């Protein structure tokens, strides 16, 4: 109920009759104020006339008046500048910390808005607003998609910023961690991010000209050079082949030299995982990428177009892994290059967000603009979320569109947050 009251106030969906306070004073809403989603009053800097007297200040909204006291606003100075208390049920008068009475106004949710909202919450078909989507103007769709796209990049920027904090302020390391996370391609994303925290880039840099040593450290720090990490049926073959033992011996030497501690190999997930996505394959590809100087932030920033960025992310496995997916389990020869599909996902989820985040960090608008341009140049993702929106009649032309629609589903539809959605707004007001 309170959410709906917020919505009605924000969008000025008031009844046709004159608005009045509970003590019968005329209310004219000039500006409902800025909606506050953090602590403090619900709306900042509202402009309201009460009996022709102009008031500028904050607005607080509750289902019933007594919630004011339940939430402790009468003892909180942050609420002393509230000029109007809006409620669905006036069961008491309210006062601030100075014991001054605050004007109250009863606000009803229009029947049509309430019915439409109930329909959105109860509809079985997904998304519940599917009926109205074909009726929306291109301007409405475009403006909302642009906002969602920015929102998603901002969200990813915050995640990158937290990684930089975790890595003692190093944006270089934050980029490597972000790249590693997305090498998990969903299932092993968290584990790859954890693995990245075990990779001392400053130390490995001294061995950058030796691909074998890089792979030894990468595999060893992943815990995958523990014999117990190999399925029992492959252990003897792995030991007989020699490559595992050679890698393990090299890692033990480097681990002793640099006091390295591996992560727990049990964190890696293999269930329902395509062999192409096994951590051994991804780590070998990452080792090659690092060896070829393709994992640096400066290299990324130098990429001016999609083709340069795709080339930057192109990689393959080391020779042993061309005929293996795990230690000891031989397979048909395959170079196991990173597929164009996987490269595009890395561009969308790693490279472009990193450009945007670093552009914000360094106050370089050209990098932020480039991030948006690159999203528009890339093909849209093809997954069940995108197909769902296409079935509703939305056109998806680029990765920018697909990222916007993923944001829409995850942050609005899944959370039933229709009151913050512009499509939801169009649905409610019809």
Blueprint of the fold:
Blueprint: H1 2-10, E1 19-20, E2 26-31, E3 34-35, E4 43-50, E5 53-64, H2 67-70, E6 82-89, E7 104-106, H3 111-122, H4 138-166, H5 171-183, H6 189-196, H7 201-204, H8 211-221, H9 232-241, H10 243-258, H11 279-291, H12 297-302, H13 306-313, E8 324-326, E9 329-330, H14 340-361, H15 365-377, H16 384-391, H17 399-413, H18 422-428
Parallel strand pairs: 5-6, 6-7
Antiparallel strand pairs: 1-2, 2-4, 3-4, 4-5, 8-9
Give a description of the structure:
It is a single chain. With 430 residues, this protein is of the alpha+beta class. It has 2 domains: 2-109, no CATH class; 171-355 and 362-377, no CATH class. It is built from 18 helices and 9 strands. Strands 1, 2, 3, 4, 5, 6 and 7 form a 7-stranded mixed sheet that branches. β4 and β5 (53-64) form a beta hairpin. α8 packs across α10, α8 packs antiparallel against α11 and α14 packs antiparallel against α15. The chain is elongated. The chain starts with a helix and ends with a helix. The model has no long low-confidence stretch (mean pLDDT 93).
């Amino acid at each position: 109920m309170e959410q709906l009251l917020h919505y009605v106030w924000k969008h000025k969906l008031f009844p046709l009759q004159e608005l009045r306070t509970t003590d019968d004073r005329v209310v004219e809403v000039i500006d409902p104020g800025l909606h506050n989603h953090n602590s403090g009053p619900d709306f900042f800097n509202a402009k309201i006339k009460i009996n022709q007297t102009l008031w500028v200040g904050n607005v607080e909204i509750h289902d019933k008046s007594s919630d004011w006291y339940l939430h402790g606003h009468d003892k909180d100075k942050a609420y002393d500048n509230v000029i109007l208390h809006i409620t669905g049920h006036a069961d008491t008068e309210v006062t601030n910390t100075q014991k001054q009475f605050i004007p109250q106004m009863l606000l009803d949710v229009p029947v049509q808005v309430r019915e439409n909202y109930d329909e959105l919450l109860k509809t079985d078909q997904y998304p519940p607003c599917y009926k109205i989507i074909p009726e929306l103007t291109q301007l409405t769709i475009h403006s909302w998609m642009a906002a969602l796209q920015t929102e998603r990049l901002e969200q990813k920027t915050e995640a990158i910023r937290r990684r930089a904090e975790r890595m003692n302020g190093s944006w270089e390391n934050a980029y490597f961690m972000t790249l590693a996370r997305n090498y998990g391609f969903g299932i092993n994303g968290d584990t790859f991010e954890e693995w990245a925290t075990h990779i001392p880039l400053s130390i490995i840099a001294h061995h950058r000209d030796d691909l074998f040593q890089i792979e030894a450290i990468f595999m060893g720090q992943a815990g995958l050079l523990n014999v117990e990490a190999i399925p029992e049926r492959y252990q003897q073959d792995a030991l007989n082949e020699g490559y595992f033992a050679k890698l393990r011996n090299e890692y033990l030497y480097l681990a002793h030299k640099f006091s390295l501690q591996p992560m727990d190999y049990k964190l890696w997930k293999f269930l329902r995982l395509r062999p192409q996505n096994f951590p051994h394959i991804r780590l070998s590809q990452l080792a090659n990428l690092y060896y070829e100087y393709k994992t640096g932030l400066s290299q990324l920033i130098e990429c001016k177009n999609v083709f340069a960025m795709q080339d930057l992310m192109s990689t393959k496995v080391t020779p042993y892994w061309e005929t293996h997916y795990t230690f000891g389990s031989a397979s048909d020869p395959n170079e196991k290059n990173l597929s164009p599909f996987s490269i595009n996902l890395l561009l969308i989820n790693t490279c472009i967000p990193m450009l945007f985040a670093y552009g914000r960090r360094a106050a370089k608008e050209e990098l932020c603009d480039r991030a948006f341009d690159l999203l528009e140049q890339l093909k849209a993702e093809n997954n069940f979320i995108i197909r769902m929106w296409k079935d509703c009649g939305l056109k998806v032309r680029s990765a920018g569109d697909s990222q916007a629609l993923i944001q829409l589903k995850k942050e609005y539809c899944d959370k039933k947050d229709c009151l913050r959605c512009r499509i939801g707004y169009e649905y409610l007001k019809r």
